[in-house]
Amino acid sequence: NRLHATDVTSSSFRLLWPKLLSQETGYYTLEYAPTADLARKRTQQVSGAHTSLVLSDLTPETTYEVALIPESNVHYFPPQTTRVTTLAEEISPVQVLISESGPRSFHVSWAPVLDSVVSYQVLYGPLPGNSVKVLQVDGRHNSTVVEHLAPNTTYLVTVTAIYRSGKEKSLSAKACTQEGERGE
């Protein structure tokens, strides 16, 4: 029953605390700063009626020192403190590009390449249809060639980034193979 954080993301978290004050008996001063740089302290005043607050615009993968100071005109309450670490930022692939399209293959590339990605999965299958094949690509690479395709066919290509945290984010694009040569 003390100050703690929930709903932690890469750029925000929600603070919850016990009801120490009321609207009439005072207010809270909230101070927070990255542990590594306490000079960047931010201060916020919160009505005594509140028992929670969302802090946002935070830096990813950063530990924050948080202090809640009850400013009561009735009792003295000691400050409550906690430490909260924001999550790593997880950006989905923002671009999937299809190039060098031939009758039997095309080239898939994506961006950005992030350190937090362990591997990429490239799923592809003809439209319409539900036969999907998967290519695994090392997280250091940002392109691959998809081969053994049917000519003159539209494919749906989905690139999924798999993060160290276990989360996954995907982006899809359509690709068309060229018409095959006569006599193929």
Supply the key terms.
four-stranded antiparallel β-sheet; Immunoglobulin-like; 184 residues
SSE layout:
Blueprint: E1 4-6, E2 13-16, E3 26-34, E4 42-47, E5 52-55, E6 63-72, E7 80-85, E8 95-99, E9 106-111, E10 117-126, E11 133-138, E12 143-146, E13 154-163, E14 168-176
Antiparallel strand pairs: 1-2, 2-5, 3-4, 3-6, 6-7, 8-9, 9-12, 10-11, 10-13, 13-14
What does this structure look like?
There is one protein chain. By secondary structure, this protein is an all-beta fold. The chain is built from no helices and 14 strands. It has two domains: 82 residues, Sandwich (Immunoglobulin-like); 83 residues, Immunoglobulin-like. 0% of the residues lie in helices and 50% in strands. It has a four-stranded antiparallel beta sheet with strand order 4-3-6-7, with no helix packed on it. Strands 11-10-13-14 form a four-stranded antiparallel beta sheet, with no helix packed on it. It has a three-stranded antiparallel beta sheet with strand order 1-2-5, with no helix packed on it. A hairpin with a 7-residue loop joins strand 6 and strand 7. The protein is rod-shaped and about 85 Å long. 17% of the residues are buried. InterPro entries: ECM_Regulatory_Proteins, FN3_dom, FN3_sf, Ig-like_fold. It comes from Edolisoma coerulescens.
